[in-house]
Amino acid sequence: TTQAAAVPDPNQTTDIASVLSAAGYTRTVGQYSSTDPYAIWSYLARAVTINYTGSNTTINMMYQPEPGITPEQLTLTQANALDAKRINYSAQYADGVAVLEGGVQAGPAYTDEITGTDWLSNYIQTNLFNLLVTIGTKVPQTDPGMNLLANSIDASMAQSVANGLVAPGTWTA
Questions:
Q1: pTM of the full structure
Q2: Which of 17, 65, 119, 153 has a CB 3.0–4.6 Å from the CB of 85, allowing a cystine?
């Protein structure tokens, strides 16, 4: 979390948000809050409590409420600067709704994209490991042997579809 006044200023390029964004770190996340030096913890709490073994349980970080965080009263210029610097912030809209804006890492990725694909990679590896540990023999390099491995991966992918992380088709955005 940064409270630096330079961060929402579009003319500043040496603040922490600008530096991290320019570095393109895909595993670094930040939040601007003028009032709460620990605001990022509310953000991270949302990200790490996703139950990937459930059904339709994944979320987009953007537009989520941030419990305990006072939303910023920003000008459009300031909000655009924060967006350009790829730093998250809680904003209040004219209708009184306060939500997280951004949902991004410092680099060119969204938090839910990084955490979701990390989970999927780990889930596939864990399921393959568990298969290899419990099979009791060598997996033969035959079609039936390779099907054992492929079926484990297919089951992992099916769970990623069930939880809403991925879906069949081609993304064209």
A1: 0.89
A2: 17
